[in-house]
Each structure stands twice: as structure tokens, then as C-alpha cells.
Amino acid sequence: MPLEVKIINRSNNPLPQYATAGASGMDLRASLAAPITLGTLERAMIPTGIFIELPEGYEAQVRARSGMAIRQGIACVNAPGTIDADYRGEIHAILVNLSAEPQTIHPGDRVAQLVVQQVEKVVWQPVDSLAISQRNDGGFGSTGKN
């Protein structure tokens, strides 16, 4: 059964929606009065006009769109950006232009995707040691290249 989430749409765009039946993320669109051009390495918070009320125990993640990344070199700076269940403000996509040319974001452009997931709360259990694993403390490329 789908999760029901309260939403306010103050943009001129349709509600976020899944592009295909198997999609995990819903497209977020730019809610802009006029186009915004990002220079190389320039960042901007792009408003979406979307406000949501997630149930306790859930989060929404703002993620990059692969098409924008490969075609325009535009990425989400804090991907995934977390929208907590108690946040009621407008959702923004924080974008950066990683290409060598200026890139323009137009009103209504699909600028990010939104994924809603259930999250667990953690209760820390202080201990003096941790179980040994095959990887143990190896990280940052320690498993080598294949």
C-alpha cells in the first residue's frame, strides 16, 4: 500500500511524480520566475515550490538526476540532501555546475529527484570492542581494484 504524504504545491508545476512504474524517485521541478544561469563551479538553491509533511520514521532524499549530470554537468551539492520528517519548509535542490560552460535552469525544468524512505532510530550501545570482520578497519579503497 502506498505511503500517503501531505503536500502543498506553491509552484506552477505538477506534483512530483514517478516517470515510470519502476522508478524510485519522483521528479522535482524548478519553481522559478525566470531562468537562472550557473557559471562553471557556481552553486544555487533552486526552489521547487513543494512543501511536505512526512510521517514520523520517514525521510525524503533530494538526489541528482543522471540526465542533467551527464548532459549538462549539473550535480546536487549535498546529494543526497535529507528532508527530515519534522521539516515543513520549501524543498530546494542545491545544484552546482561542474561543466566548463554556463548552464541555464529554466522554470519547470526537472532539476532533481525525491526519494522517500523509512528510517530507523538508533540507540547507541557503548562497548569496549567490536566484532572482527573480513574488512575490519580497511577503508578508502582498501578492497583494491577489480
TrEMBL record:
It comes from the Bacteria. GO terms for molecular function: dUTP diphosphatase activity; magnesium ion binding. SUPFAM superfamilies: dUTPase-like. Residues 14-144 form the dUTPase-like domain. InterPro entries: dUTPase (IPR008181), dUTPase-like (IPR029054), dUTPase-like_sf (IPR036157), dUTPase_trimeric (IPR033704). Its EC number is 3.6.1.23. The keyword Nucleotide-binding does not apply. Pathway: Pyrimidine metabolism; dUMP biosynthesis; dUMP from dCTP (dUTP route): step 2/2. Keywords: Hydrolase, Magnesium, Metal-binding, Nucleotide metabolism. GO terms for biological process: dUMP biosynthetic process; dUTP catabolic process. Transmembrane segments: none annotated. CDD domains: trimeric_dUTPase. Belongs to the dUTPase family. This enzyme is involved in nucleotide metabolism: it produces dUMP, the immediate precursor of thymidine nucleotides and it decreases the intracellular concentration of dUTP so that uracil cannot be incorporated into DNA. This is Deoxyuridine 5'-triphosphate nucleotidohydrolase. The gene is dut.
